[in-house]
Amino acid sequence: AEARVARDAKWESRNLKQQQHQYQQEQLLEQQQLQEQEQRWKSAAAVPEEPAAEEQRPEKRRKGKAARAHAVTMEARCPCGGKLPAGAVFCPSCGARCTEEKARAAKAGTQEPPTAAVPEEPAAEKQRPGKRRKGSAATPDLPSEAPKLVEAAAGPEKQKSLWLSSATGKAAERLRGSRFRWLNEQLYTITGDEAIKIFQKDPSLATAYHEGFRAQAAKWPRNPLDGVISWLKKDVHPQAVIGDFGCGEARLALELQGRKVHSFDLVKVNERVTPCNLAAVPLEADSLDVTVFCLALMGTDWPLFVTEAHRCLKPGGLCHIVE
Ligand SMILES: C[S@@+](CC[C@H](N)C(=O)[O-])C[C@H]1O[C@@H](n2cnc3c(N)ncnc32)[C@H](O)[C@@H]1O
Question: Percent of the chain scored above 90 by pLDDT?
């Protein structure tokens, strides 16, 4: 038995080393891809700007939609104010992806609301005060525009540093994304007990996982947890005792304030979470009216999680699974 324990420990540590190696390889690959991306940005920035279509051949002005589309290609501007060389996809000033569609919307004055990462384009009249657009005189200059104008006037050095900070931010984001993907992959290929060991070894992984998950979920057209929450609010009796199996950050309990919810996950990331393995939750048998699994049947031993939910459910209780 001792020999077996020693052998298992050896296997486990070898396995972890292999996984770490795989993770490092993935990080290297990400960095390489980023460098290639930077090269592409640099070469896009180096393309000399073409003169506007009208200046090339004033006598042969194109008509209609095709002409407008062409003009956008030649004169496209990123919402940050940077000029996009013809055909460029990434803005040489801020590094943001800037499609012709976006540029066209900005040109037509229908651009999306600005985000923290991509500042709004200074309005045309602010760049050229002599040429104000109709109807814009009533709109006062926003004080928040001032730093952007200073940045724009700061010249190539400032532009370069803006580009670099944007590239560094993107690199950090990619690394965070890669760490999350590695963890996610782990959770789907190991048992609950093994997952607990990984998180015990490095508790910071839990935060990394939940941040990564939040970032991913924010991109989905619809988060299934929202559906579960509205179902519980609308169709489940307010006195029902609920068990959220694999609760993550326990948003379900947060949004069902006043209801009785037990939230279980591997790590206690906040006060609402009871840390445990879903294969053995600290609840009496027949104590829940509803059990919820929202994207939580992750471990290779997930049937044990369902068996455990069955043990905790009262006769006639509901097991709600979203996978
Ligand atoms: C993809 S997240 C979903 C979180 C939440 N249900 C939601 O929809 O926002 C799945 C969660 O299940 C947890 N989990 C996976 N296997 C587990 C296990 N064996 N024991 C406890 N929690 C587990 C993970 O830690 C993770 O937080």
Answer: 42
309 CA to centre of ligand 1 in angstroms: 14
Ligand 1 centroid vs 93 CA: distance in angstroms? 40
Residue type, 309: A
SS3 253: helix
Q: Which atom of ligand 1 is nearest to the CA of 302?
A: 19
Decide yes or no: CATH 2.40.30.170 for domain 224-322. Answer: no
Q: What is the pLDDT of residues 42-69, one digit of tens each?
A: 666 554 444 444 444 444 444 444 444 3
Atom of ligand 1 nearest to the CA of 294: 6
Q: Which atom of ligand 1 is nearest to the CA of 195?
A: 19
Weakest mean pLDDT among 27-36, 143-152, 171-180: 143-152
Whether residue 183 contacts residue 116, with contact meaning beta carbons closer than 8 Å, is answered with no
Position 177 confidence tier, pLDDT thresholds 50, 70, 90:
confident
Burial 219-244 (b: 16+ CB within 10 A, else e): eeeebebeebbeebeeebeeebbbbb
CA of 246 to the centre of ligand 1 (A): 3
What is the Å distance from ligand 1's center to 295 Cα? 7
Contact 277, 296 (CB under 8 A): no
Which segment, 46-50, 172-176, 256-260, is predicted with the most confidence on average? Answer: 256-260
Asked whether 246 lines ligand 1 (CB < 6 A), one says yes
Poorest-pLDDT segment among 198-212, 262-276, 285-299: 198-212
Distance 270 CA to ligand 1 centre (A): 14
Give the per-residue pLDDT at 137.
35
User: Distance (Å, rounded) from C-alpha 247 to C-alpha 264?
Assistant: 6
Give the integer Cα–Cα distance in Å for 180 and 174.
10
Sequence spans of domains, the chain: 1-51+63-127+149-189, 224-322
pLDDT the model gives residue 178? 81
Length of the chain in terms of residues written = 323
